[in-house]
Fold each of these.
Amino acid sequence: MGGTAQKPSTYQGLTLAAGLHATAAHSPRRPALMLGERTLDYGELSARIRRVAGGAVEMLGRTYGERAVILAPNCIEYPEIICGLSDAGMVVSTANPRITSRELEALAADCAPRMVFVHPSLESVVSGASLPSVEKTLVLGEEYEAWLAAQAPRSPISELMETDPFALVYTSGTTGKPKGVLLSHRSRAMTFFGMAMEFGCFGPDDRHLSIAPMAHGAGFAFTMAPLFFGAFVEVLEKFDPERVLDRLGRGDHTGTFMVPTHYQTIFGLEPSVLERYRGTTPLLRAIISNASALPQAVKEKIIGYWGEGLLHETYGSTEGGIVTNLRPAEQLTKIQSVGRPFSCTEVLLLDDDGRPVADGEVGELYSRSPFLFNGYYCRPEETAACMREGAVSVGDLARRDEDGCIYIVDRKKDMVISGGLNIYPREIEEVLHKHPGIREAAVIGVPDERWGEALRAFVVTEQGHPLDAEAVEVHCRRWLGGYKVPRSVRFVEALPRNAGGKVLKQELRDV
């Protein structure tokens, strides 16, 4: 065939809200979304999405490719705002609810949003920022509901293509200044299909408990994927460990997603509380973890508490989507691994010259899949720098064993060179987590006149387990060669983390 490709008359784009609208068409009264006392069925949710789309077009005129910002904690309006604006062809930045006015100004200077949707609890952040590009700010609650009721519903705009971006997600900042990552409708829809196949808990008869912040990419994906396939999603506004156990203890949830910090907090509850909810989840089919590695002790607690055959531990990035999954059958046999490539994903481990490394050797991890980002917003050079032949890397170093399982060694930028030796902090962190008195730990390199860099550990102790630096050193020497033992230890109340649960090592370097 020659000439310019045209869409066939039967073409239906894989847009973010396509599955949700389809469910609304055939099962409008099916429950879709619940937060607290508020519940929306699919017919109501679809209608509200269409009104958001209609309101954006009415207010702005041309909406295709224009930007908007939503600044809110988890709330029932979150999915409809993103889906509605994306149906209007807009690109939505999901701002971290912990953002300051100055940080919001920097975000707006980068992407020039024309609309802002803000939760009442964060209105002062917006009012305290200079946002010259913004034409309309809507405060969720009465103002937003009045605006929504006045809008005429509309279908997705005709220009919309599944490869168009719908989200502008600013990276977590674990490696420095955040960059805007453009995510397309197709990349998320294909991710949802992969998630449904891997986890098996997003069908029309399923009920998902959504806990992680929707402002973070994974939290949003694990809320939207069930809605894409007609499942029922219960959203928690904020994380509370006993409330999570209570909601799961209803007995009708089939899946949930949390980050390692959530699991650690749950197992920090009093034993009597944990026992109260043990065995109350007969329908649970999948427990999913992401954002950072699960310490072995926490992983064993999850399996011991909820049972075998449920835990999935995924690895990925904003740019690459989900890359690997350590599936339930290998949780205890490949306990340090991040698993095997995710559905439809090719994983490449390459040396600095772009050549594949042998099994057991360390290389930079690249992934190629339908889930990749469209690029960094207005940063073509940085986009090109992280790509090789259609595969993307975020700078993680990994190795593959003889069975094909992937092991993350560390971030390339986190590697410490001390006395000419390459040291990977992740290995030391895993050893620190073996100590029963250590709840959390992070290791960085700090300047050292003699060695170039020296290792420093930041440790959060378990309640009732006092530790000193000498005890930490003795523990490390049981497992590690002397050059890998931290030369200094700092005890802190908590590690700095972003909304997705990743440790912000740059902040530790500033301590």
Note: The chain has a mean pLDDT of 92.
Amino acid sequence: MSKISKILGLVMAATMLLAACAPATTPPPAATQPPAETEAPTEAPTEVMTEAPTEAPVAECPEGSFDFGEVTGGPAGGFLERAVAGEFSGTTVSVDGTQIDPDDRKMICGWKAFEEATGITVNYVGNKEFEARISIAVDAGQAPDVADFPQPGLLQRFVEQGHIIDINTFIPADYLTATYPELWLDMATMESPDGPMAGGVWNRGFMKSLVWYAKDDFDASGYTIPETWDDLLALSDQIVADGGTPWCVSIESQAATGWVATDWVEDVMLRTTSLENYDAWVAGELPFASPEVKNAWETVGSIWFEEGYVYGGRDQIVTTRFQDSPAGLFTDPPNCFLHRQASFITSEFPDDATYKEDYDFFYLPPIDEQYGRPALGAADIYAMFNDRPEVRALMEYFTLPMSVSGFMNTSGALALQNGATPDMYANPVDGDIATLLAEATSFRFDGSDLMPGEVGSGSFWKGATDWASGSADLDTVLAEIDAAWPAGGAATEAAATEAATEAPEATATP
């Protein structure tokens, strides 16, 4: 049985209460400096948890179709090689993250080979309140050895405060260059008090920039996969001319209604403006009412609101459950031919639907060639707070596709390393999506997830819903979203006040 312990408890309530009562301006602990020499410290830090870990058996890990073999790889002569040789056997590494059952089981299954090969025990704490929990632990000087960050924004804050170990202090740059596409290395490079550093190692992710289609009917009609946005519109026009309906679109999701629309806007933003503008928009430095952002909404509207393009018309977009939307691909004849959604949507497909026969997917085409082939999605990056040899060994292991094998043997995530190949995935859909992701020239995270809650899951969702339903015009919606940014956030207070009273003219932020 694996020696991994799934620690399911939270930080003790008293710790949470004390932290909540602490002044907001409490200074961070002293910066963590990278080691001066190649050998890491041998003294373990104070135990992070104030109560004993709870041992919980890990479910039997499924066998995949691919044999990952023995633990090999990592930097030549590095800490992983030394760990496999038994040098650090009997030590323990703590990892915190957001994954809970069942995804934590998949993640832990990917670590079993490391434990068995090295004799190192990995203790994992999974909690959906990870962001609050990790901040409290770091402020209290009780950071875990490693943290699994679901997006780089929070990690960047810890890097800026000097809490994170620079990966380049023990993993050679040429190894990382050979292991990851350049875009991932760029996103891992962050500003620390001592200048740019490698904030962590990327491990797994998933992709949203996908269009699913009714393959059997699509092929029988003689349609071809669009390579550009103009091709996509021409395909939509042809389907209409042939008496069909191109798209199924719906955004109803109970209290979360609107998130589907935000994904569309984000995907189009990446195809119509620069990454710098996307990042500025997410940070609140580029208003929703700017020409760049408004253009993305209008481009989405050119599909959603075009006569004959969407099954059921505009009225059903906000009233139909998003989970029911792809059902139109599988009717006879199809109610629609195309549906844009992330890879998880296959769980809503009929049980008897067969990949490559009944359905398939293609990449949401680029719009402006100067912005390449961007991908919208999510990814996890492991970062290191405490510098010991066994922690370094685990970080090196995370650079191997084998570390993602728990997901690859089932489904739910894609390995981000160059060494991952389609045949490693038990689910061929995942393998093919991974190939598409590897071809991306840029990658960005879901913008609404990174915005303040008042906007990302508040005014953005609501505004998109009002716009889709036709209950509010676009200029009003964009002005109201801009006005919702919290004080000290995106727009200045004066700009927010102006936006709340009247829709500003579409002018770029200076």
Note: The domain at 206-373+441-510 is CATH 3.40.190.10 (D-Maltodextrin-Binding Protein; domain 2).
